[in-house]
Amino acid sequence: MSPYKNQTYSQKGYTLPELLIGMALGLLVIAAATAVYGTSKQTWHAMAAADAVHANARVALRNIHEQVHVAGAAYLKANNSNGNFTVEISLNEDAGQVALAGVNGNKSVESLTLGHWHALDTMDCQGNTGSTHAIVRSDYKLNTNKELSCKDLNLTNSTYQALAEGVEDFQLRYAEANPSTQTLQWKTANQVTDMGQVLAIEVCLRVASINTVHNTKSNSHLKGCQDEVLLSDGRVRRTFKRVVALRNREGVMP
Question: Hey, is 136 helix, strand or coil?
């Protein structure tokens, strides 16, 4: 007789309570992982929205900054008459088309116009260089699509093109110099008595994300360009203020 025929084999498995406990623990792990994923996804969307807001503000402010720095600047004119070579310095700005102008009002009216000689820099706010006019005049304003737009006012066929999206408000202040008292006073465009005495411009943009981010929270410490409380509708909002000096306004202050 074979010695293996009398051996019995015992089989051991999981009991029903053990299976139920294991399934419950597995479901808890899955639920925790799902919650973490959802939170991470919302955080990523919030960070992406904030990054887009900052990127739009950077583009708009950099564009204005570049046009302000060439506004009212002179350029060198070379003359060669009968073998006599001379170099002259142009006027800082054209009396008929001044380097700085502005319109004060609500977000649909506020505008800023910056001018410079075409011979100094051929590029306008849109990046165009084909103008044949002596003066490049870049005008900035908001459009109805919440975009900061601009165009060269001297180009008859030019249309306003968007520079940055999500811009809800665009406000400006001007630092007007008083040479007699050697002081500066911040004013709106309608308060400025002489734009030729303005030495700096404060640009304020209130920018919102295009898409909503539902986990954003309101912050009472964050204010808009006109000191208004920012809306809390699920969008990321930031207010950006920059002061840019008109460095070509020499001789304004004694």
Answer: strand
